[in-house]
Amino acid sequence: MAEIKKADLPPGYQGEGFYATKFDSIIGLARANSLWPLPFATSCCGIEFMATMASNYDLGRFGMERLSFSPRQSDVLMVMGTIAKKMGPILKQVYIQMAEPKWVIAVGACATSGGFFDTYSVLQGIDKVIPVDVYVPGCPPRPEQILDGVMLIQELAKNESGRRRYSEQYKDLLAQYNIQ
Amino acid sequence: MSVDKWQNFSPDPTEEFDSIQGTLATLNLGPTHPATHGIFQNVLKMDGEKIYHSEQTIGYIHRAFEKLAERRPFNQITPITDRMNYCSAPINNIGWVLAVEKLAGIKTTKRIDYMRVIIMELARISDHLICNSIIGADTGALTGFTYIFQMRELIYELYEEVCGSRLTTNISRIGGFERDFTPEFHRKLKIWIDKFPTWHSELAILLERNRIFMDRTMYVGAITGPRALAYGFTGPNLRAAGVDYDVRVFSPYSSYEDFDFSIPVGQNGDTYDRFMVRQEEMLQSFQIIKQAYANLPEGSHHVDVPGYYLPEKEEVYRSMEALIWHFKIVMGETPIPKGEVYSAVEGGNGELGFYLVSDGGRTPYRLHFRRPCFIFYQAFPEMIKGGMLSDAILTMSSMNVIAGELDA
Amino acid sequence: MTEAADKTLDLIKTKYPEIEWLFDYSYDMLSVECPTAHIAELLEFLRDDPEAGFTFLTDLCGIHIPGHVNKELGVIYHLHNMQRNERLRVKTFFSIAHPRVHTMTHLWPAANWMERETYDFFGVEFVGHPDLRRILNVDDMDYFPLRKQYPLEDGTRTDKEDEFFGR
């Protein structure tokens, strides 16, 4: 019988039949284990993502079974592959259409920094157009690395304040990218 | 051909359709869409579900390979070729290395040829597996996709034994391979040869005679042989239309003439034929791998071309010539003669050609990739005209359009 | 030179005896250089004539050679006769000041996007092309990137030292 790992209880006050803790912790715990990714797969890293989704490296066990191609219904924007300058505005549009809370993971060297392609037509890193939370280096990264990046996003989702979107720091960050 | 047999196909691309209400709806099958074959845009003009006109916009992943190649020495271009058709990267790598060897006049031994054939056929099987399982997934049969990826994981492990990488392999060097097949590779290849027929038949049983699959794919997105030739089709898409053109048979390279295999050819050029041609091609590739592995001659994994192939590290530390060759090759000073060559291999999607113009310098003067996806995707509007939207999705996935090869 | 290539060259020479044909046979392929004014006629002849039979257009690409005065830009066609399994390369060069060639889309629909790509990269105008606009680069790009005078990088990176990255 396999050992089932249970999630740790967030810090709180326990009593007879009740458990008092912050909303943020419980909601963070729920969010972290049921993120819905938007696989923005453009090139080779997309194939490694397909391998991550498949049965050998199963992304489903992290709660990311349901891929959503609609930005309105997804939490994590996984940008996998090279983003050309022609694609930049479209990526920004997809990011703007996503509802809060949202996280961005840049998978692969091309999404992180333009990677291998230091050319006139490739955007040198998606953080030129949208804010990025986690960078996964590699060309292409192994599925284990992608899963590592996903687990970092889970840590972020678990520990983040529910009112992040209203904080000054976040608004400043978005203003840097001209996103309202 | 009569319209009643081809209920979804209009042979004359200039034929006008009258719409009932006089207005057509525009649908943007935009760059990001779930048929995750890559990013290219189709703007469709439709009346209800029927498509009357479509326009493509590509270039969303244009990475300027041809300009990049003018900057890089010849042995540093192999990683670029990886990223064209990334589902079968070894074929691109070996195709490029063959083009350089043709220009430089390097002849390889039978052992190296057979090793290359094994790797290339594994890559072809890997490419066709993705394509066929995605066709299944697009009709709704998601199981085939998850099952077949286990087979691809085994192929990835085989690549790792040879070159260390799973997907973007950078396999093969000018004059041979970077290392010989390890004993672990032999062990894993034997296991793979054992397992492949069962896995392949699982996918076959799931989809080949499946009533729903056949109804969805027969007579959908068809193109005739002459029209396909005019559009520059090559590869499985052309063979599904009835023309038996395969570069491995017409201009054999890397000792393909030693092997006994047949070329599957379809009849109608529709989606079902493309699926079946790929299924059968996988079995033929499997035969080639078995023959090559059974008859693999003894020998070294590289020919003796010190100016192009990196010497062994022990030699570099001991001998002066080896040190100089090592330095020159790493700095890119390989003696490639002046001239131009066109060399083609049978890629996963068709004739992958390399037109290389060299002026005797470190880097190519001009390198042009003849990318099959770019050329046959032009026929897409004609293939989907008059059909339904879901048929257009299936046609697109059955043509195996890979964005990396489309835009380069 | 093989017999088949010899025959093809003779065929071309008899059809156009007034032109001084520059040709080369290397790496199993005959290359012929054609003056730009006659290229459309020549390719139509090569496609339709039963003796020539080059019915398949394998490839169409451009090239920029700054050294050749008045012949800086070129378009290179690769043809294939599938019956005889013979390949042929036809080249045509023209000045960069007037980069105009007749389109081949009426002969092969495959030439459509290949000509758009050549226009996008080199600025070659194909006379008679149904829809000549950029295909791979952004639409508002104002230069032709594969010409030799333009750099590979876009120049906006601040974190890479030019001398270390070979720029």
Describe the SSE topology:
The complex is a heterotrimer of chains A (180), B (408) and C (167).
Chain A: E1 13-15, E2 18-20, H1 23-32, E3 37-41, H2 44-53, E4 76-80, H3 88-97, E5 103-107, H4 109-113, E6 134-136, H5 143-159, H6 168-176
Parallel strand pairs in A: 3-4, 4-5, 5-6
Antiparallel strand pairs in A: 1-2
Helix pairs in contact in A: 1-5, 2-5
Chain B: E1 25-29, E2 41-47, E3 50-57, H1 65-69, H2 78-82, H3 89-104, H4 110-139, H5 142-163, H6 183-207, H7 211-217, H8 225-230, H9 236-240, H10 247-250, H11 271-294, H12 313-318, H13 320-330, E4 338-346, E5 351-359, E6 366-370, H14 372-376, H15 380-384, H16 389-398, H17 403-407
Antiparallel strand pairs in B: 1-2, 2-3, 4-5, 5-6
Chain C: H1 3-15, E1 22-26, E2 29-33, H2 39-48, E3 56-64, E4 73-81, E5 86-94, E6 100-102, H3 111-122, E7 125-127
Parallel strand pairs in C: 2-5, 6-7
Antiparallel strand pairs in C: 1-2, 3-4, 4-5
Notes on the protein architecture:
The complex is a heterotrimer of chains A (180), B (408) and C (167). Chain A is built from six helices and six strands. By secondary structure, chain A is an alpha/beta fold. Chain A has a domain of 109 residues: Rossmann fold. In chain A, the strands form two sheets. In chain A, strands 3-4-5-6 form a four-stranded parallel sheet. In chain A, helix 3 links the parallel strand 4 and strand 5. In chain A, helix 1 runs antiparallel to helix 5 and helix 2 crosses helix 5. In chain A, 43% of the residues are buried. Chain B is mainly α and 408 residues long. In chain B, 47% of the residues lie in helices and 11% in strands. In chain B, helix 6 packs antiparallel against helix 11. The N terminus of chain B is likely disordered. In chain B, the strands form two sheets. In chain B, strands 1-2-3 form a three-stranded antiparallel sheet, with no helix packed on it. In chain C, strand 4 and strand 5 form a beta hairpin. With 167 residues, chain C is an alpha/beta fold. Chain C has a single domain, classed as Beta Polymerase, domain 2, CATH 3.30.460. The termini of chain C are far apart. The relative contact order of chain C is 0.13. Chain C is elongated, with a radius of gyration of 18 Å. The model of chain C has no long low-confidence stretch (mean pLDDT 89). Classes of the chains: A alpha/beta (180), B mainly alpha (408), C alpha/beta (167). Chains in contact: A-B, A-C, B-C. Chains A and B meet through strand 3 and helix 2 of A and helix 2, helix 5 and helix 17 of B.
